[in-house]
Amino acid sequence: MSLLRLPEPFDFSLSVRRFHVFGTDLAYRLVDGVVHRAIGGRDVRIAPAEGGVDVEPLDDEARRVVLHMLGAHYDLPAFYAWAEAPLRAVVERLHGFRPPLHADPFEALVTSITAQQISLFSAGAIRNRLIERLGERVGDAWAFPTRARVAEAGEGELVAAGLTRRKAEYAVALARSDDDLHELRARSDDEVRARIVAHRGLGPWTAEWFLARHLGRPHAWPAGDLVLRKAAATLYGVGVDDLGTMLHPFQNLSAQYLLAG
User: Which residues pair with 221 in a beta bridge?
Assistant: First the structure.
């Protein structure tokens, strides 16, 4: 057993639910309660364990990716101490939920592109077809298509996987750009937003979800999300932008809990 400890509280089942609630996610494949993720060309197995997760094989690269993927940096005790009604009921129901993060910036952005203006079930199915067509099978896991592979493939292969012609153009243009997406981690929230929306087809909704679900920034607030707009109106009786202000300094965690709840 190779135990990787995670800060308490941590509920494995709640935290990995997004990997299967909208259908199987091949890049975070859940098999008999174990998540399989391709890391460094290996099938890395992530299973629940007392005090964290059992990771095989576990090395420095797997440790870094899995800790990021399972939201180890979130300060849940501080969030729980701050949360008030009506958010309190959601927090209590989802105690130990650490919102999962995309491990790779290119994967995060292409995933957002596939999800634009369609249901999450449809987006998941298209994402899986893209993975099967351009990705690589590694044991029980699938590696998401690399940026170089998408750039080489061109729009036609992405359309064949189920993307619209326009979305395929956005993804290929992103893949072929000179923008260093990994370098965005060192930038401020506003700098990240500006860099992302400079790409054709990537707007504020995509930029905010990149901040929330790849970088895990605390103040990310995807105000364009329909569920958050409904929550603002029905639970708080305010506009979604006003709700974002009310939920400072935990906008991201609040959004993730409201969406999951």
Answer: none
